[in-house]
Amino acid sequence: MNKLIAYFIFPLMLSIASSAFAANRAVQISIGGIGPGVDIAAFETVKQVIGYAVANGVIDNFIVSGYGIEGGFSACAQASPRTNAFNAFVRQLQSITPNKTTTGYSLRRVAACPGN
Questions:
Q1: CATH architecture observed for domain 24-110
Q2: Cα–Cα distance between 75 and 64 in angstroms, integer?
Q3: What is the pLDDT of residues 16-30, one digit of tens each?
Q4: Closest CA to 28 of 115, 113, 116
Q5: CA 95 – CA 91 distance, rounded (Å)
């Protein structure tokens, strides 16, 4: 009886884990100036982290959806199915702390980028 339960619970756990993994395969990124211009150092760091991720195959879909008047952009980056480094990429983005008096910065995990 215990083996029978294990045969049902293990696949259930795998399906839950895979659906949770699939639910966070993209991140929406927004950085922009809120009055004065955008924090240039933070903006450049965000661009470098994204560029590195694109160059190394961590993300395979990057869509810019808007540009800020005082600098910055809104975009979506989607994980490549060939890598496990997407969570590290998001953690790098989360570690960036721009000047809160000049720059709005937000990250939001989503299932997929718009249009996918």
A1: 2-Layer Sandwich (3.30)
A2: 4
A3: 444 444 568 999 999
A4: 113
A5: 6
